[in-house]
Specification:
This protein is α+β, with helices and mostly antiparallel strands and 264 residues long. It is built from ten helices and eight strands. Strand 7 and strand 8 form a beta hairpin. Helix 6 packs across helix 7.
């Protein structure tokens, strides 16, 4: 991750923490019980599961398109997006701002979220995400940094004063609860630029929608750059489900995401 200093972040990080596996014995048992023969040429569990799910609809095992890529391409071209909901990935995203996650969590269908809590975590030493526009201008970046440092100092002082007040008002309260009460009040002055961490679980259809909407040249800059990073991860993870999604260089100097099969 690129930093101007330890407290400031210029780029998000995306960690792929979870992927699916196929229970091969159960798939074999299903095929045996139904008298079916099925083989596939992909080692990616999510792609196998998507193909099995799609073929179950028509009981078309062993028929028609032979390669997994052919089969999934037909799903994408036909916009049978519901089948893509069976493929799931878990990503841990760090180095993003609260401003970004306010937009991210608007993607509800097909997603699950667990985000860092400012009520429990002391943000006096929090890191802050530099908006892409300020990364290209030294003068604006310095004005922004000075503002952040003023807020950082104010938050620390306010949190300490609030904790003392809560202790005096409720001496019977457990220290952990006093800290939580103080932090939940003091966090009200923290800016959108405050760095957060968020664990995101999404299915392939949901991730495709996110990439199309937030990777667009018209999207907000920070989440657009995140979409590009997520796109890189998912294209490597599942070439057949995301092969029609490309990363492009745009006239504004930033990368973006382009989707051939839109709104699947």
């Amino acid at each position: 991750m690129e930093h101007l200093a330890d407290s400031y972040i210029c780029k998000a990080r995306v960690y792929l923490l979870g992927r699916q596996t196929v229970v091969k014995e159960e798939l074999a048992r299903f095929l045996s019980d139904e008298g079916l023969v099925f083989t596939t040429d992909t080692p990616v569990a999510a792609e196998i599961l998507n193909e099995v799910a799609g073929r179950t609809c028509y009981m078309s095992f062993g028929k028609g398109r032979r390669s997994n890529q052919e089969y999934l391409e037909n799903l994408l071209a036909s916009k049978h997006g519901s089948v893509l909901e069976h493929a799931v990935w878990n990503l841990l995203i760090t180095g993003v701002s609260r401003s970004l996650t306010h937009e991210l969590v608007r993607h509800r269908a097909g997603f699950g979220y667990s985000q860092l809590s400012q009520r429990y975590v002391d943000e006096s030493s929090a890191r802050y995400v530099i908006p892409p526009l300020y990364q290209e201008n030294d003068g604006l970046r310095e004005k922004w940094r000075e503002t952040i440092e003023t807020i950082r100092k104010s938050y620390t002082e306010l949190a300490e004063a609030t904790a003392l007040y809560v202790q005096q008002k409720h001496p019977e309260m457990a220290p952990r609860d006093r800290r939580k009460w103080a932090r939940q009040a003091a966090r009200s002055i923290l800016p959108n630029a405050c760095e957060t961490k968020i664990f995101v679980t999404g299915n392939a259809r949901a991730w495709r929608h996110f990439l199309e909407q937030r990777g667009s040249p018209h999207a907000e800059s920070e989440i657009r750059l995140l979409a590009v990073e997520v796109c890189r991860v998912l294209k490597q993870e599942s070439p057949n489900l995301f092969h029609d999604i490309e990363i492009t260089d745009e006239p504004d100097g930033m990368p973006a995401v382009r989707v051939i099969h839109s709104k699947v």
